[in-house]
Request: fold
Amino acid sequence: MKKQFRKLSYVLFIALFVVIWHFLSLGRKTLIFPSPYEVLLSLVSIVRSGIFIAVVFNTLKTIFLSFVIAFVPALVLGIFSKLVPVVYIVMDGVSAVARSIPTVAIILMALLLLPVSLTPLVICFFVVFPVLYINIAEGLVSVDGRLLEMARSYRINKRKIITDIYIPSLRPFLIAGIRSAIGLSFKIIVTAEVFNFVNSNTIGAQMYMHKIQIDLAGIIAWTIVVVVISLLVDFILKKLFERSEIQW
Amino acid sequence: MVKLIDIHKQYQNVNVLDGIDMEFEEGMITAILGPSGCGKTTLLSITAGLIEPTRGEVIGMELKKSGFIFQEPRLLPWKTAIQNLEFVLPDSIDKADKKRICSDILDQVGLSGFEKHYPSQLSGGMSQRLAMARAFIVDSDILFMDEPFQFLDLKRREQMIELLKSLWVKRKPMVVIVTHDVHEALLLSDKIYILSDKPAKIIKEIRNPMPFGSRTVKNTEFYKLEQEIINNYLLR
Reply:
């Protein structure tokens, strides 16, 4: 009942939004402000175009590749932070600085310093790595010392302490980190692709081309595509985690 | 036998333990009785090898298998009751045997039917019974107990003491129990060390004159002994 009510609320909200948008577009004074119907037409033409699958695939490939590139060092450094306190202190400062650097500054620097094809990956790494690292490091630091003491008192071996105490304690932090990192990757990668003209078969490059043509309907249509894919990926991740989740 | 020789412990220049000598004998329950905050838990942790003394040594613990019952149950929240028990069992025991051993002890502590329950689904008393089952399942040579009944009401505490006695009597492992409760110390232990306030020293060593089987509140000697300990040593 509660779930159905929530679904109904979402549908009503979207319907209300579209109706308001429709009426606003009726009184438009500029040519570029599209109606919901025009956006729908644009969306259909984008999805039907021969390049749609390739474009989405390219962007998704960069997102997952950059996630993996950020995840591995975040995990390694997170573990080192637990083992060597100096690493935790240093990385705390590094990640705080990394988080406060404006994304656009990273984008511009990467465009000037690196091969263009690498920029989305590098930019995403700088934005996503601190998020993943902090979640992993905090998760490891917050492992309940009383449980570790209990394990020591029973002389439990290290392998079992890692698999049965550390990993389950880290799990909620890891899930939260992965979900927010993936969500963030979508935003960053698409932004970086707007600046990356080498490969036009990406979502960001497609948005840029619609911008050159002053086609706001096309930009909104691609935005809808990004939001839907992002929500879908998050939904899949949520289900995957729920499936292996233990009821505690 | 496990011996503590001249144990000292300092935390940031504060003396917590001041030259403690104790002996824990095989097949005996020893209580360490003292006021709150006197350093009883520190002494227990030193004996169990969880922390190092500033000075002094613990002899006889090297090859001993130990179990621990803490003030709180300290169960793994992501594991079921039976998995919490399996966690402390050696990997050398095969799966079927582990299951049988765990089911047996769960039955003994009255938790049959709760094998697949998570700690969050158990009451405080049930969780503490599970923690007690975990301590006894490992066939430990020495069992450490740190005020394990502190958060239980009177009725449940009495039930837990009886349960502990029934589990202990089967193998009679060496037990060291820390408590501030004379009642508990007298009902359980063969020997009682009474500690002073911080820095803790031994004020008195008492042998419980009541035999194990007749250590109950119904024993006429019980209240006489309780009053004697309270008046002569704890309220001194």
